[in-house]
Amino acid sequence: MKVVLFSSRYPGSVNRLNISRLINAFPDYEFTYVLYDNRYSFVIGKLRNLVKEIILTLLLQNPGWYSARRWGEKKIGRHIPREFDKHIRKIFVRSVNGAETESVIKALKPDLLFQCGAGILKTNIFSIPPLGTLNIHHGIAPEIRGISSTFWSMYYGLNEYIGATVHFIDKTLDTGIVIIQGRTQLPDHFDYVEAVYQTAIQGAELLPDAIRIVQSSYPIVESDVKSFYFSSVTWQRYRELSKNNFKAPGDVNTLRFKYKCKRVVMIPS
Question: What average pLDDT does the segment 67-76 reach?
Fold first, then answer.
């Protein structure tokens, strides 16, 4: 089977962990990297976050949100084999959804596309492979959508939604058909870094099963669920959570939600 791994030049530890798990599970598959060249935005983002962290540490005498993310990446990175992908072909593109990228992926004729750090994909890209395009969302979707789902689940006491979802990509964010999900098994006392770490490790383990499922025939069931959408975390919110010993400081009853149709692949017994 041909699989295109659509990522960026700097995908981060979580995406590299997921990719290494797939390559290890399917040594006979033909994997190809298509990499969005994000050097400029990556360097600018790193510098911006470093400056913010230095200022906040000097002012508050307490490392915060940016340090937590860095510590999480380091901890996850210990599980990534060295040079696991050195033999995989790499093709660089200049945009995520542009005509050049579309042409490159079509020419590769993939059976399956895996979005692993490239960004939000449009229909012209995710509709290319016949088996579909997969994404792993670190949250239980579509109940918890958007970015930093682990943080927001902790902040509002929605710990039952800390986990990972492998799903098909569709036109809206984190609403595609769910292939497989797993809730993170956490100890009685945990902080944000531990929750992110455990979710990443357990999420990577779902991917091989998800790939096997999409190659089979499967029914889809539908149900309505409450769906919450979250965006960026501020350092103030992270400080609230950490000062509260990582117990929910937020009131879940203040949140707005929408009913979403949850479509789930039923795994053959």
Answer: 90
